[in-house]
Amino acid sequence: MGSFNDPEFQHEISQTGFEFGRQAAIGEVDDDGKPKRTGTVWTASAHIITAVVGAGVLSLAWSVAQLGWIFGISIVLIFAAITLYTANLLADCYRSPDPVTGKRNYTYMEAVQNILGGGMYVACGWVQNISLTGFVIGYTVTTSTSMVAIRKSNCFHKRGHEAGCKFSNNPYMIALGILEIFLSQIPNFHELSWLSILAAVMSFGYAGIGIGLSITRIISGQGGRTSITGVEVGVAVSQAEKIWRVCTALGNIALACSYAQISIDIQDTLKSSPPENKVMKKANMIGISTMTIFFLMCGCLGYAAFGNDTRGNMLTGFGFYEPFWLVDLGNVMIVVHLVGAYQVLAQPVFHVVELWASMRWPKSEFVNVEYPMNIGKIKFSINSFRLIWRTIFVVMVTVLAMAMPFFNEMLALLGAIGFWPLGVYFPVEMYIAQKKIGKRTIRWLGLQILNFVCLIVSLAAGCGAIQGMNKALHTTKPFQFKE
What integer pLDDT is reported at residue 221 of this predicted model? Predict the structure, then answer.
């Protein structure tokens, strides 16, 4: 007991699908005894679109600028096609061993455990939790960058566009950290029903503002100089710098397209008839088609608006100065979205450690006892271990974000960490195991080639991100970054 390799611990942590807050009446349950699921192809499509339209879309214009018109558009389409293909492989892994009549897997982790076994489950767990922690660091950087952008926007509006408006991100990261410490203590904060709706409204809001401002700039004749190959070698960057930037751009696009970690959770909301895998495949097609159109609009219109001088983030890089209130509104939407999204991604990491601790020390009052408290009409409980562990986690994330506050490089690194293992490798290996595809067959070779190519892309993106961070750290001292 208490080991991450312990079978009982693996069983407990893997079966953490959606909790239902009501008792089902007789005749209103599915084949697994849970309340009847009511999801449709349209609700699943909405979940997918909400998952992929996030802050990462604001970096797509910069990514297209590094790749150029031909490669930029092609890479977005290729990543969308890969995401669609592997998402459809995952759809057949929701039930196992048979994709229509087999036992349900409620989460991505449970599917890996049941299909590939405990060893792969442990590896997947480490990758997933490292990836989620990285996302939380990235969200801290992005949120503080938007907070600073609001202050800069007002500074430029009052003092002119040439004014030296530079501010430190640190106070805003600290303020966000303090807020997240309090939010992390709210039980099931990530399951609040309005949180997903709010995230959808905010993400479409700020992406829409970016697209609208880009169209306005193009129509007014202020569009930037573009080229087939993107940022030109010898004019703006050296050959080596161009290569590193292309690698970083690949990571940014990979991150924007990925939603594999929650794909099975979404499928677990679908009605059992027609078969969930067939409905999910339709939802994948609708969701990813919508995503691709939206991404091409963000990337291509942003590049057309600013050309080879496109900034890393459309709303914080100050390609747009006016109307300043609209730029501020877009950044407020980013902040509101990511404050909640921080908890959505951090809660699974909290849960893993807290479950491990409760199984390791089952009789410890420090770990297991809840102390009920009231503040007016608000009732909640405090747990000593949860309070200390979650506070330490938020503090560590904040310190790391303050040390490396680099938007594009952080996004690329996150894309590199999560894209290949979670978005390609595990889905492919689960599909091979479930379908019992023989080694060295044409189908097996094709899947392994896809695996290898995506691994190379992830490694290239990771190298580009690390090189970018290294370069930035040589020009800026840790904890002293200003923008």
Answer: 85
